[in-house]
Specification:
Mean pLDDT: 87
Strand content: 15-25%
Structural class: alpha+beta
Strand order of the largest sheet: 1-2-3
Order of helices and strands: HHEEEHEHHHEEEHEHEHEEH
Radius of gyration: 21 Å
Helix content: 25-40%
């Protein structure tokens, strides 16, 4: 997902694909060569990202200096996709530590990859103006039942506002993640045509809130937001199957290791994935529980 996010950010003329790659992966000394899989005889890598309009690629080897990869297709990529906006939500909640973080990162006082800095910027800026439209209100009303309040940004600090205001650091991390989604919808970041990448949305979320979270993501997809999520959670994955409609566009990807390297399996339904480590682990759990109870 970080590769795709880097490519999406590279539609901006002030963002280089290769530089963004090292900023989101954070290899030592920002050397893109460290992203090459370390095995005998392998000294060159090529990354290609394609859309319907264009493609962009980065090629580099073990002696490539810093982020100086060979980039192809950059001009057409920028021209054809210039209006594309993208957002990456990291697995770890960061807004509670947002105060002065960007300045600290710029001065190398702290070491965070760009996904954390970018999400703080996205959450702080008010992109939209005026009243919320009916569709946005629908989303916000659903999420507000979970967050029990709204997000307030004051002097680079985030608060959850209800009858009073509570610092984000005093709010449960799961609620903070839901509140972040609320803020991104509220400020217009997640609109039709945008792309959302979310790493392990279910992390630290109360299990009873997962059905609502899945429904929200499906609703955003129905409104034209393209969404990529990564997860290791059975309940979160299965709820997409339970709540999807015939018109929803949902695809499951399973990455797995082989002697030939990493391979990927795709299927429209979670239950039909053959290489499914999540299901295999849950099946093993049921078998272990059965054997234990039978032994008693």
């Amino acid at each position: 997902m970080k590769v795709l996010y880097s490519a999406c950010q590279a539609v901006r003329i002030d963002v280089s694909f290769s530089h963004k790659l090292v900023k989101v992966f954070k290899p030592d000394q920002l050397k893109i060569s460290r992203l090459i899989r370390r095995k005998k005889g392998n000294n060159r890598s090529k990354i290609v990202v394609e859309s319907e309009q264009a493609q962009i690629s980065a090629e580099f080897h073990l002696k490539t200096q810093k982020w100086d990869a060979e980039i192809s297709g950059e001009f057409k990529w920028e021209r054809e996709l210039s209006s594309l906006t993208s957002t990456f939500i990291p697995a770890k909640e960061i807004l509670s530590n947002a105060w002065n973080l960007e300045a600290a990162v710029d001065k190398n006082n702290v070491d965070f990859d760009d996904t954390y800095v970018d999400i703080i910027t996205s959450a702080k800026i008010d992109i939209s103006a005026g009243k919320d439209n009916s569709e946005r209100k629908k989303y916000l009303n659903i999420l507000q039942k979970i967050t029990t309040g709204t997000v307030l940004v004051k002097k680079d600090r985030f608060y959850l506002k209800n009858k009073g205001k509570i610092e984000f650091s005093l709010v449960a991390e799961g609620i903070r993640k839901i509140a972040l989604l609320w803020q991104l919808i509220k400020n217009g970041t997640l609109e039709k045509g945008s792309i959302l990448f979310w790493d392990e949305p279910e992390a630290n979320i109360n299990p009873c809130h997962i059905p609502v979270l899945v429904e929200m993501l499906l609703e955003l997809q129905r409104s034209g937001v393209q969404i990529f999520v990564s997860t290791h959670d059975y309940v979160f994955s299965k709820y997409f199957e339970v709540k999807r409609t015939e018109n929803d566009i949902v695809t499951f990807y399973s990455f797995y290791n082989t002697d030939a390297g990493v391979k990927v399996e795709t299927n429209a339904y979670f239950k039909d994935l053959k290489e499914n480590a999540i299901v295999k682990t849950y099946d093993q759990l049921l078998e272990d529980v059965f054997n234990r109870n039978l032994g008693d």
